[in-house]
Design goal:
The structure holds 2 protein chains of 2 kinds.
Chain A: H1 10-27, H2 31-34, H3 41-65, H4 72-75, H5 81-111, H6 117-134, H7 136-164, H8 178-201, H9 209-237, H10 240-244, H11 249-260, H12 267-297, H13 302-322, H14 325-336, H15 338-343, H16 345-363
Helix pairs in contact in A: 1-7, 1-8, 1-9, 1-12, 3-8, 3-9, 3-16, 5-12, 5-13, 6-12, 6-13, 7-9, 7-11, 7-12, 8-9, 8-12, 11-12, 12-13, 13-14
Chain B: H1 2-9, H2 53-63, E1 72-79, E2 83-90, H3 96-109, H4 120-128, E3 134-137, H5 140-149, E4 152-156, E5 162-165, H6 195-205, E6 211-217, E7 225-231, H7 237-248, H8 258-265, E8 277-279, H9 282-290, E9 294-298, E10 304-307, H10 311-315, H11 325-354, H12 362-371, H13 379-399, H14 402-422, H15 428-443, H16 447-485, E11 487-488, E12 491-492
Antiparallel strand pairs in B: 1-2, 2-4, 3-5, 4-5, 6-7, 7-9, 8-10, 9-10, 11-12
Helix pairs in contact in B: 6-9, 11-15, 11-16, 13-14, 13-15, 13-16
The chains are: A mainly alpha, B alpha+beta.
Chain lengths: ~375, ~525
């Protein structure tokens, strides 16, 4: 099978997961929903990181017990293979769409005003497709190359923000609505879990099961920590009332930094640098979705599938802007409840492994 | 007149006008015929040396087109005044004095009484020919190949083996100074067109018994000699095997040079970035061999190809290690800055000026606007036009002899630039940007890498003029990804950054000489400490 997995080391895997956790945690949030009634996101993100890592530990343990190195080891011989693989692939597809959609929104609102989303997508689609076609090895290496620059830019921005941030903006923390807490934690866990799930999908490319496990742990933890720091920085820069009506809040934060330091005219360059990170992460998720789908349905070559999935992702993003209200409503519901798609198959996978262990124990 | 009119209206080809037709006899016309890979026609050089001298003579005469090739020498003589023999060589390739003094004269004087014909080749090699290098050979293809190299084949009547005597004596250029990789502190020797001289230059630096120079044909019909130079026990055996496999697959009729061999054996043919380092400096090739890599020398080419390579290899200069460490580090940082400026500066300027003017300060914006007020070309066209002019001046300067080349550079750089600004064809700001770009480009030590960067620069400029920073971002990301996927003979091109290698060969700063320990591990050598 031509899955274009290649081989990549621990540092490359850590870079992919770190970048994924950070991008999904910071650039994929819907500010209208998150900051509706207060600011709790910097707490939620921390909890979500821990939960995602817990899920990852459970899944890697189950994979190891099955003697495999990737998620496919858990669903490869299942009778309901497509039923398990399709929701996970769809969850990855939706996770890939989120940062791109946010960036598309930011570009059309702040950078290229009055430009249609279709035009921007014409730039994004070839790059996204190329990355997916080049495969896991290239994605991991590109992530390893870009991570230091992205980290530097994020840390410099946060350092500048910290100097002018106000801690009173962290309040109020809305404690009265448990359902909202649950919704936000579920959504954030989904976003934090997606890079780990994608890593599990391409686990055959890592050198050993231990490398996979440690890469997931380290990348998830560091990425989650960085996302918490970035969200904290965002929260002390703007009040929740400002943030709730502010799409692409991170770009606004950059502009704020520049307003205070007029000599730093790098906000656009930094914005597009972060955008390359978002494209890379989207490509990572799409590629992982393709691998899972191809393995589950016996597709022998990932390239046609990769091209189709990239086109589908970009089309669905455009549908959010242009198509009928019904379609938009369906897509938005999928967006909101994507965590169900990602998290529901996981217990089934774990239960299957548990049952097999019991059966093996009885027979032996 | 009548003939002219008839020629005008005839459908077929007029008789006296010769033209090579695309569809020749015995070739099936096909729509996809042009896609078929070009296969080299093999000469019918097979079999062994015949016992009959006349047959051998006739075969050689036919094979070398003796009727037309007047430089083919077929010299008959009698060994010891009794046994018929034939000395075959190519005039000019073989040294006539050596043939006379060490083959013909001793052969006339030899006493071959009582020695059977079949033992004569051994007798001749061991007792008669006072040559430094002589060997027995029965394979006809080897005999023919030896003659083309300048050796002399002695064929004896009744013997099934020929004696191949080394009489090569053709004229070659002496060892000179490097023309393109000049250094201030490093050695001043450069490779020549003579393969033996090049091997000697390497052997003078690498005085080790495990240094191997394996001679072989480059493949194809031309059978150009090449040498694979490596350190046995240090080089990765699978890399060597892969190189041999790719060389075996060459089927080209073109004369071989290092550049052509590179294109025939590399994996990613369509990418502008080179996958083999071409150097004219023996010290650089020797350093690479010590590092666990392979140097490829080709007969008739004054360059050595080094493989595998990384981006770091292309950014290194020959004298990097001759400088003191802090100085070397600064020079390397300047070089990297130059390369980055050269790649991104024109595109970044275009993006800011066209799509994001808010990112420029009002003073700079004012300067840009005032300098462009009279220029009629749009900014992207002006930038790309100037970049092309820069490449034109550079190519023109390269192809003409030294002093005139420098003059072209000065004329192109100063007069043409000044005149273009005065004529309002280009603006001063763009001229400064292109000049900085050009300087940065020259800071890249490798010529092939310079040209490759020029491709990326133009691509980024086009992307920036259409999409601003968005265009640069997506093109830059795509380029980085393609470079990350690139491999030079199995070694990832962006090693040791992605993937990370244990031996952290620094790209941005030079490590201390004391810290250099043997071969780089990204070449995966057999023994880490060579």
């Amino acid at each position: 099978m031509n899955l274009r997995l290649g081989a990549f080391g621990r540092q490359e895997s850590v870079s992919l997961v770190l970048l994924g956790t950070f991008v999904s945690g910071c650039f994929a949030i819907d500010t209208n929903a998150v900051f509706r009634d207060g600011n709790r996101i910097y707490l939620v993100q921390g909890i979500a990181t821990v939960l995602a890592l817990l899920l990852f530990e459970l899944l890697t343990g189950a994979i190891r017990r099955r003697g495999g190195n990737a998620l496919y080891a858990l669903i490869g011989d299942a009778r309901w293979k497509p039923v398990l693989a399709v929701p996970l692939s769809l969850a990855l597809l939706l996770a890939a769409m989120q940062p791109m959609e946010q960036y598309l929104c930011a570009i059309t609102q702040y950078v290229f005003v009055e430009t249609k989303q279709t035009v921007i997508c014409l730039y994004l689609l070839p790059c996204l497709t190329l990355l997916v076609l080049l495969g896991a090895e290239t994605l991991a290496r590109t992530a390893r190359l870009m991570l230091p620059i992205l980290l530097l830019s994020v840390l410099v921005t946060l350092a500048l923000v910290a100097a002018q941030g106000r801690t009173y903006r962290l309040y109020p923390i809305p404690l009265s609505d448990p359902l909202a807490w649950f919704e936000q934690i579920a959504g954030a866990t989904y976003r934090a879990f997606m890079p780990l799930l994608a890593l599990l999908c391409i686990g055959d490319g890592t050198q050993t099961p231990n490398a996979l496990k440690s890469a997931g742990r380290l990348g998830g933890l560091l990425g989650g920590g960085l996302a918490v720091a970035a969200l904290f920085g965002l929260s002390i820069t703007f009040s929740y009332a400002q943030l709730s009506g502010m799409p692409s809040a991170f770009y606004r934060m950059l502009v704020e930094v520049r307003a205070e330091n007029p000599t730093l005219r790098l906000d656009r360059a930094t914005f597009f640098l972060w955008m390359t990170g978002a494209i890379l992460v989207s490509a990572f998720y799409l590629y992982a979705a393709c691998v899972l789908f191809a393995q589950s349905f016996g597709v022998r070559d990932i390239r046609p599938l990769g091209m189709s999935v990239c086109a589908l992702a970009v089309t669905l993003i455009l549908v959010l802007y242009y198509d009928s209200e019904t379609t938009q409503a369906v897509l938005k519901t999928l967006y909101r409840d994507a965590w169900l798609l990602a998290l529901l198959p996981v217990p089934f996978l774990l239960i299957r492994t548990r049952k097999e262990r019991v059966v093996c124990g009885v027979s032996s | 007149m009548k003939k002219a009119i008839r020629d005008l209206f005839r459908f077929d080809q007029p008789y006296r006008k010769f033209e090579l037709l695309e569809t020749e006899p015995k070739r099936t016309p096909s729509f996809f015929a042009c896609r078929k890979p070009k296969q080299a026609k093999e000469y019918a050089i097979e079999g062994t040396v015949d016992r009959d001298l006349k047959t051998n003579r006739k075969r050689l005469f036919t094979l070398f087109r003796g009727a037309d090739n007047s430089d083919l020498i077929l010299r008959s003589f009698l060994i010891g005044g009794r046994v018929k023999a034939l000395a075959v060589c190519l005039n000019g390739m073989a040294d006539a004095k050596q043939i006379g003094a060490f083959i013909l004269r001793p052969a006339y004087r030899a006493n071959v009484d009582g020695i059977p014909e079949k033992s004569l080749p051994v007798f001749l090699k061991e007792r008669v020919l006072s040559m430094q290098e002589a060997e027995l050979c029965a394979d006809w293809a080897t005999v023919v190949s030896a003659i083309t190299e300048g050796r002399t084949a002695v064929l004896i009547d009744g013997a099934k083996e020929a004696v191949l005597a080394d009489t090569r004596g053709f004229v070659s250029r002496p060892v000179g100074e490097p023309q393109n990789e000049m250094t201030i502190l490093g050695p001043k020797e450069a490779f020549t067109e003579n393969l033996r001289t090049n091997v000697t230059l390497l052997r003078r630096i690498l005085k080790r018994p495990d240094f191997v120079c394996r001679f072989r044909d480059a493949g194809g019909t031309n059978r150009t000699k090449l040498v694979i130079a490596y350190l046995d026990g240090t080089v990765n055996p699978s890399l060597l095997q892969e190189l041999e496999r790719r060389l075996d697959a060459i089927a080209s009729n073109d004369p071989m040079t290092v550049g052509r061999v590179e294109q025939l054996i590399e994996e990613y043919t369509y990418l502008p970035m080179p996958q083999m380092l071409k150097t004219e400096r023996p010290d650089r090739a020797a350093a690479a061999v010590l590092d666990g890599r392979i140097a490829l020398l080709v007969e008739g080419c004054p360059l050595a190809g080094v493989l595998p390579i990384t981006l770091g290899t292309l950014m290194e200069s020959g004298e990097d290690t001759d400088m003191r460490q802090p100085v070397g580090t600064i020079v390397r940082l300047i070089r990297m800055t130059g390369a980055l400026l050269s790649t991104y500066l024109p595109a970044y300027f275009l993006a800011l000026a066209l799509h994001h003017p808010g990112q420029l300060s009002s003073e700079i914006l004012e300067t840009v606007i005032s300098s462009r007020s009279m220029v009629f070309l749009p900014l992207p066209v002006e930038m790309i036009f100037l970049l092309l002019v820069f490449q034109l001046v550079r190519e023109a300067g390269l192809r003409v002899p030294g002093a005139v080349g420098h003059a072209i550079g000065i004329i192109g750089g100063l007069l043409l630039g000044q005149a273009a600004v005065s004529a309002n064809i280009v603006s001063t700001v763009v001229l400064i940007i292109v000049a900085l770009t050009g300087l940065g480009n020259f800071a890249v030590p490798d010529y092939s890498a310079q040209v490759a960067i020029a491709y990326y620069r133009v691509a980024l400029c086009i992307a920036a003029s259409f999409g601003g920073l968005l265009g640069i971002a997506v093109t830059g990301l795509s380029t980085t990804a393609v470079l990350a996927s690139l491999k030079s003979f199995g070694v990832p091109f962006l090693t040791p950054f992605a993937p990370v290698a244990a031996h952290r060969e620094h790209l941005f700063w030079r490590e201390r000489i004391q810290n250099r320990r043997g071969a780089s591990d990204w070449a995966n050598p057999d023994r880490r400490r060579a």
